Amino acid sequence: SSMFFDEDGDLAHEFYEETFFTKNGRKKAKLKRISKNLIPQGMVKLDHPRIHVDFPVVLCEV
Question: What is the domain partition of the chain in residue ranges?
Answer without folding.
Answer: 4-40
